[in-house]
Design a protein that fits this description.
The chain has 328 residues and is an alpha/beta fold. The protein has 10 helices and 11 strands.
Length: 328
Amino acid sequence: MDPVSQLVDLAETVEGVFRAVVALGIVLLVGGVSARWARRRLAYETWHFIHLYTYVAVVLAFTHQVAVGTTFTASPAATSYWYALWTVALGSVFVGRLVLPLWRNWRHQLRVEAVVPESDNVVSVYVTGRDLDRLPARAGQFFLWRFLTKDRWWQANPFSLSAAPDGRTLRLTAKAAGDGSAALRHIKPGTRVFAEGPYGAFTAMHRTRPEAVLVAGGVGVTPIRALLEELHGHAVVIYRVGSDRDAVLYDELRDLAHAKGSELHLVTGPPVPDKLAPGELARLVPDIADRDVFLCGPPPMMNAVLGSLRELNVPRTQIHFERFSLAG
């Protein structure tokens, strides 16, 4: 009997095997759409929806183990141990992904305060609410944002804060790269907002040196701009864009850099030749190996800069980065 026929026979005759096969199929599907070539071809909404099925796979796998696994039935102690472990794991997911977001959104009552176009295809959304000074958000972090309109309430998109939280408002800035981000321009003030987060470790809490270099590419400037506002000590900001007109939030960066005594370099031009090659970075920041480096931008730029940093012998512990690879 061939392997496929054996699998079908097991699924039909042994309790729990069919659920295991379905769980395996879901895991393979999620793994497939996580590949870089697939992510580039999927809208964020589709990618996120498929990944939600991971929870289904976990539950199916658990019921399979209960049905046919000896681990759960070897002894009363083993049964109690594994049930307790699964309960804690699933309970943590339940609290973190459902209870905590519901509690925070009920507490803070988030609403859109204003929608401000930054360029032809970039928009900033200002969100206000109650007691935002008690929301544990830091510059550099992101939220999963749902704008509760009739046609968009079900979509959650990840956008970084583009300004350091001030206890009164939260600001996100996004480029129209997918259906969700393109629709931001049409959101009306007063729209209710449901936000999950904050997420991410791209914050000043992880710095190891007194001085920093902030490297942004394209719309990856959003968390960099927020970080510059919060960072203390001298910073060098390098903003890589195709042309001057692509440099969103540049005026804010310039004013912040001036106020904080930081340096700002706007690097424009096509991807080739590489204007962030090791020699160029060393010219802009001669002491780069003695600074923390915060990077955020599209994958090709990120990979190039990370390679340059390795050649310049910047210690790995001083490199902090956030990638933007899915259109929202």
